[in-house]
Amino acid sequence: MRKSLFAITALLLVTLFAGCGQKSQKSRPDTIVIAVNADFDHLNPLLIQMSLAREVCTMIYPSLVRPSFDEKSGAISYQPNAAESWEFTPDGRSVTFHLKRDAVWEDGKPLTSKDFSFSYRLYADPAVASSRQDYLNDLLLKPDGSVDFDHAVETPDSKTLVLHFNKPMSESIALDHFNDLMPVAEHIFRPIPAAEIRQRAATLPVMGTGPFRLKEWQRQSKVTLASSPTSVLPHPAATPSVTFMVVPEYTTRLAMLKSGQIDALISAGGINPKDAAEMAKSNPDIAIIPVADRYFDSVVWLNIDGEAWRNGKKIAPNRLFGDRRVRQAMTLAIDRQAIIDGFMGPEHATIVNTTLSPAYTSIIDQSLPAYAFDPDKALALLKEAGWTPGPDGILQKNGLRFSFELAAPTGNPRRNYAATIIQQNLREIGIDCKLKFDEALMFNKNQNEYRYDAALSGLAAETLPFQLVIWGSDFEKKPFNSSAFQNARLDKVVSQLTGPLPKTEQLKLWKEYQQILANEQPRTFLYYYDELEGFNKRVENVRLSLLATLGNMYDWKVGKN
């Protein structure tokens, strides 16, 4: 009822003010307004999991370096940020970062190496339960497997940070991992017990050193950032204010963009391709900017019994999807091309059978099984796994009907459309698939607690280093492994890929990585798609890339015209 009332209210507001777009823009000459489908989970780097929340945090908190993606070479390079320079030892076991001397927190306190050292301990603390705690396992470890912080992290002075690794590390992997571990201010968080950080998340201070500072956060409504005048990372934001407005309904977001009530529509799939084509003709004041090969959708099949895990950390196969043959059958039974053709169009999506982005053409394994739509082959695999038609036509095994809920987040029309096609495809082979739609934050929470047997989910899996943190048999420490998939050989491959290797050995391991995922199908990998972001042309200097939508938000500004 609450959601319905909110949607009706939002639509009434759009109707009421549809003719006031220019007036609305004139009333906010120095503010950029962005519509998003859901509130951020957190604005604390220790706690974030949502990709857009992470991007906002990079605008508030200090990161060691700034990644940059070269579309021509397909390579990522790293530019100075909080660290003005760094050097690795020849054996790849240590790196020294030299921090900018004039970087300060919002309250004027200097940013120091001890802020990083202190924060790394919080990231590693099980009580904080950071989605990025696994990164700390790159550091020197004690015999019991915990991080040996006394020897792994050195702060010889306030502007020097030295990290020691437990094995030779690839420079790109180390920079990617530790750049993601944005610090909080030690002088602010030292008095807060680690065990209370997550439970007090809603009241924790948000204070950084970046180009923006938090001005206001009205939960489930809007977040406003203001330019931070003291920032040198890299400079105070060019626009005085940016507001993220939470608008769950896609049609409402689109109407607000067309009417000028908002300046940008991003996330949750961006703008539907069919709407983008129409807008190109009817709304010349709006620029449609594609972000390709960054986001993928998939159906996550829970490999374990979620209830047994929650009630006693017991690992037992999922009654439906614990069998690899069943997961393979699910992929064969889903007409992925029909989803693409019916919603995005073939020019805006690429079918994949692993998490790997099509952007990395040099390591894509072209020999992988295609898993083309084949209901007959799916049924044969299911029969081999013991599933046969019951009296009502629904497959059954030992008296268990093949019936489950497929969960998806609200406010994402692409996933809503895909869910409907998947439901229809599975019904045609005798599987009872019911659809369940949850608000985004609840959806993420339930996934993290393994409450869904199946979930239509996705990731921004743009970098190769991030590919290596999605999977891991210790899935309790790998929150992105939402299928709770365990594979000892994949663990070994991932571990080897974190080290410096000759290109031939890297290629061999990346192909094995893809082969394991394609064979096991812990998810039905649907497609990588173009997210079409919409920006009013009054917003200048917008540069989007494979790495981030908000990557250069500190340079965005409202033009004079």
TrEMBL record:
<dbReference type="GO" id="GO:0043190">
    <property type="term" value="C:ATP-binding cassette (ABC) transporter complex"/>
</dbReference>
<comment type="similarity">
    <text>Belongs to the bacterial solute-binding protein 5 family.</text>
</comment>
<dbReference type="GO" id="GO:0015833">
    <property type="term" value="P:peptide transport"/>
</dbReference>
<protein>
    <submittedName>
        <fullName>ABC transporter substrate-binding protein</fullName>
    </submittedName>
</protein>
<dbReference type="InterPro" id="IPR039424">
    <property type="entry name" value="SBP_5"/>
</dbReference>
<feature type="domain" description="Solute-binding protein family 5">
    <location>
        <begin position="78"/>
        <end position="465"/>
    </location>
</feature>
<keyword id="KW-0813">Transport</keyword>
<feature type="signal peptide">
    <location>
        <begin position="1"/>
        <end position="18"/>
    </location>
</feature>
<keyword id="KW-0732">Signal</keyword>
<dbReference type="InterPro" id="IPR000914">
    <property type="entry name" value="SBP_5_dom"/>
</dbReference>
<dbReference type="InterPro" id="IPR030678">
    <property type="entry name" value="Peptide/Ni-bd"/>
</dbReference>
<dbReference type="GO" id="GO:0030288">
    <property type="term" value="C:outer membrane-bounded periplasmic space"/>
</dbReference>
<dbReference type="Pfam" id="PF00496">
    <property type="entry name" value="SBP_bac_5"/>
</dbReference>
<dbReference type="GO" id="GO:1904680">
    <property type="term" value="F:peptide transmembrane transporter activity"/>
</dbReference>
